[in-house]
Amino acid sequence: MAVITMTREMGSLGRDVALGLADRLGVELVQHELVEHIAEKMHMQESSVNRFLEGKAGLLERWGINENDMSLYTTEELLAVAQRGNVLIRGWGATYVLRDISHVTCVRICAPVAMRAENVMERVGIVHHDVAMKEVRRNDAAYARRMQHLFHVDYRDPMLYDMVFNTEKVSVDACIDMVSETVARTENQPTPQSTSRLEEMVTLARVRSALRRSEITSRPTPSLTIELDAESGELLLSGVADDQAFKDEAERLAREVPGIESVRNDLIVVRSVLGP
User: Fold this and answer.
1) pLDDT tens-place string over residues 92-105
2) If 0-12 CB within 10 Å is exposed, 13-18 middle and 19+ buried, where does residue 78 land?
3) What domains sit in the chain, N to C, each tagged with a CATH number?
4) Which DSSP category does 225 fall into?
5) pTM (2 decimals)?
6) DSSP characters for 61-92?
7) β-pairing, 234-241 with 225-229?
8) Among 11, 45, 47, 208, who pairs with 119 as Cys (CB 3.0-4.6 Å)?
9) Contact 96, 160 (CB under 8 A)
């Protein structure tokens, strides 16, 4: 039931570590598989989503992407993948979405820019070192912006991770050994509490996603609060609704989400209260 998240930093040898861990632990390596589902929910081409994530989208393309939607649907997909278990998710902000689940091991693989540029030159075939350095720095900046915009975090903050490895000092094999040992420790195994917490997060993400995809409930409602009683399975909707249609549709969609046993709809319709 191992769940590991790992950053994607160009030239850091993180891909080698991820492949080695997946082979050692017999877990599924998830890297690009989420694009199809996210693109479908956002009614976009997969290529556009990829260019946005890689920091290569043009101005008009970026204007056409709602970052709140991207964050919402990415979170939903990441939680669903983590719920399957026995996975290593590389990139996608998985560390920030899943770090509060106690049986998830969050790892950052990094290295000095100069070393990463050399690795890129070797693997991609770039001849000039300064060109490789520029590409690595561009990739870092794009990743930093993306994580800040989507999840409001600085991916370089070491407190976001359980383990941070500098591959200039620590070999790929040593990284694999130490992460494998950590994942196997008793305190990193799933518990009823951590499993329940993950299931709760999955259910709430599905509710938010369902509301966002409906034309009636997709309007921004800052006061909307969605809470789940994990023991009873009761979902609470509270805050302000623009109209009765919003209130009714929110309840209907919530009732259709697996894991919801009942819905308490405490949404207040402002127009009904204030009058014309």
Assistant:
1) 899 999 999 999 99
2) buried
3) 3-188 (3.40.50.300), 214-274 (3.30.1340.30)
4) E
5) 0.87
6) HHHT--HHHHHHHHHHHHHHHHHH-SEEEEST
7) antiparallel
8) 11
9) yes
